[in-house]
Specification:
- This protein has 263 residues and is α+β, with helices and mostly antiparallel strands.
- 65% of the residues lie in helices and 9% in strands.
- The protein has seven helices and four strands; from the N terminus they run H-H-H-H-H-E-H-E-H-E-E.
- The protein has a four-stranded mixed beta sheet with strand order 1-2-4-3.
- Helix 2 runs parallel beside helix 4.
- The chain is globular, with a radius of gyration of 19 Å.
Length: 263
């Protein structure tokens, strides 16, 4: 991801940053759910619940995000000659993303479900990189294009789908153990190696992954240093929601287990 996007105004630069941070949250949420499905398949239990959670999130968040881009963001890209071919290719990728979600929904066994989920994650990560590194700089530098206005239009599109999507997500079965007995899932928790995430979007990616964790579930975070500022942000963002314990304290990596409390 570009650390600096060429923008015509400070407002454009702020809009680019807001879009990139939202992309990171989506990528983190998807990564956590795909990892949960992989763990369930490896342990032989909870595959249907993990798959339902992933499909529900895709239908309530990922696909509406793609639709909002098609309605609000991509028309501006199609109007810019250098970006037209890129946007056409990204529209084709949206079709593939929807097809992979359908494959995941109808998969008849764990192997097919994990395969579709992993393909979805790889394509989505590549898709976001194209938007961050190529499309957003092109839009930010184009005369007559207001990224703040495009971002507002996307928000309006997403607001219209939010209530229906979140209802679907709430109806989806939570992945893994979800009672208040204090026991945790058998094979372990999904792992997010934050060392592999660019610094500018690292915290947003982690927040997205944590939002995917259901009560009684958890996430193992691998960090390049003791993430005390991050832990403070998590506590400020969701007070007393996560129980944090250290599994490893350096020097090469810090591994932390974050478990969402049930009450």
């Amino acid at each position: 991801m570009n650390d600096v996007a060429i923008s015509s105004t400070a407002a454009d630069a702020a809009a680019v940053q807001a879009i990139e941070q939202h992309h990171a949250e989506l990528a983190g949420a998807l990564s956590a759910r795909v990892s949960a499905l992989q763990l369930a398949a490896r342990g032989g239990d909870g595959v249907d619940a993990a798959r339902a959670d992933l499909v529900g999130w895709c239908e309530s968040d990922l696909l509406p995000h793609a639709a909002a881009e098609e309605s609000a963001l991509y028309p501006a890209g199609l109007a810019i000659a250098p970006a037209r071919i890129l946007v056409e290719a990204m529209l084709a990728e949206h079709v593939v993303l929807a097809s992979l979600v359908a494959d995941l929904r109808t998969a008849t066994d764990a192997v097919r479900a994990v395969g579709a989920a992993r393909a979805l994650q790889v394509l989505f990560d590549s898709h976001l990189a194209k938007e961050n590194d190529q499309l957003l700089p092109a839009l930010a530098g184009a005369p007559g294009v207001s990224l703040p206005d495009l971002l507002s239009a996307m928000h309006a599109e997403l607001a219209g789908a939010a209530d229906h999507g979140h209802e679907q997500e709430a109806e989806a079965a939570p992945a893994g153990h979800n009672c208040s007995c204090g026991e945790h899932d058998g094979p372990g928790y999904p792992e997010l190696d934050a060392r592999m995430v660019p610094h500018a979007i690292r915290h947003a990616t982690i927040f997205g992954a944590l939002d995917a964790v259901h009560p009684g579930g958890g996430l193992v975070l691998v960090a390049p240093h003791d993430p005390l500022p991050l832990l403070a942000q998590i506590e400020q963002r969701q007070p007393s929601v996560f129980e944090v314990s250290y599994l490893e304290r350096g020097p090469e990596a810090w591994r932390l287990q974050l478990v969402r409390r049930t009450a």
